[in-house]
Design a protein that fits this description.
The chain is mostly beta strands. It contains two helices and 20 strands. It has an eight-stranded antiparallel beta barrel. A hairpin with a 3-residue loop joins strand 9 and strand 10.
Length: 312
């Protein structure tokens, strides 16, 4: 079975922002070095695969002979600084944290005695291997299905579907795995009752006529050790279209109820016209009130077998 990459960083690698900023670009090592230059030593950021700070991480620095020369703990933002400048040369940097597999990087300290390692990404312990074959149930309490539209060409409006479920069938041959999901169209929630009523109307989802949105995968194409393109058919408003999901596997782990969970993140883009949603209002030349393209973001937890009773 294929394994995921360990997520090693390299000196000078860009550092991620907060989870809400993921995908918006990387901060250059030079900027960090300038801001923290007075502190000397090494600087690194330790993050999970879905870009959360690992606050209890520990950074250990060894020279090329394997001798430990520095050790420091991460702060609340997952940032680690070693206190003292180091002699110029190459060093090995190892990030560790309870519950995570370690990650390593090589840092080259300059004549200033400083280096920025960038971002070290830690995978959950036990989450390196892909999920074992079998049935996995989608957990709606710890998952989200979000649609994002541009409003007036200048900002975004987000809506979440609150009612959904699904199953993932992991095959021995991972590329033969299958995904099915059902979304209750009337469960859309954008945070505004008037807008939600319009979204449920025949102008958009037409929930009275088409109460469910369904997805059924038809194939899986690997694009990396932990990424796949999921091919499938999306049925909405009675229209069936092929929609590909860009899926990233985030790892597996034990839960408090004695089960095993696997997590994924997936994105897709949809054109409203493909599903007979033609409503729009033009507020200026070439600018529509609501974009014709929607971005879909899925944050999914699945549980091995059937869903357990749970409280949080």
């Amino acid at each position: 079975m294929t394994t995921m990459g360990a997520g090693h960083g390299q000196a000078g690698e860009g550092a991620h922002g907060t989870p809400s900023e993921a995908g918006d670009g990387h901060a250059g090592a030079g900027r960090a070095a300038g801001a923290d230059g007075a502190r000397g030593g090494l600087r690194a950021r330790v993050r999970t695969r879905d870009n959360w700070a690992v606050r209890h991480a520990v950074l250990t620095v060894t020279d090329m002979a394997g001798q430990q020369v520095a050790r420091a703990a991460a702060d609340e933002e997952g940032v680690v600084h070693t206190a003292e400048p180091l002699p110029p040369g190459p060093y090995t940097v190892i990030a560790t944290a309870v519950g995570y597999a370690p990650a390593a990087a090589t840092a080259l300290v300059t004549a200033t005695g400083r280096a920025d390692v960038g971002t070290l990404v830690l995978a959950r312990q036990g989450g390196v291997e892909l999920p074992p074959p079998g049935t996995w149930s989608l957990d709606p309490v710890h998952s989200s299905v979000t649609a994002i539209a541009q409003h007036l060409g200048i900002s975004s409006i987000r809506g979440r579907f609150l009612g959904f479920g699904g199953r993932v069938e992991i095959a021995e041959d991972i590329e033969k795995s299958r995904v099915t999901a059902v979304i209750e169209a009337a469960s859309i929630d954008s945070g505004n009752d008037m807008r939600d009523g319009h979204l449920r109307s025949a102008d958009f989802l037409d929930v009275a006529e088409f109460p469910q949105i369904t997805y059924a995968s038809t194939g899986l194409t690997p694009v990396g050790s932990d990424r796949w393109t999921v091919h499938g058919d999306l049925t909405m408003r009675g229209v069936v279209r092929q929609v590909d999901l860009d899926l990233t596997y985030l790892g597996t782990g034990q839960d408090p109820w004695g089960g095993v969970r696997a997590a994924y993140r997936a994105t897709a883009e949809l054109r409203r016209e493909d599903f007979a949603m033609h409503y729009n209002q033009v507020v200026a030349a070439g600018i529509a009130a609501i974009s014709t393209t929607l971005r879909v973001e899925l944050d999914i937890q699945t549980v091995q077998g059937d869903l357990p009773q749970q409280t949080a």
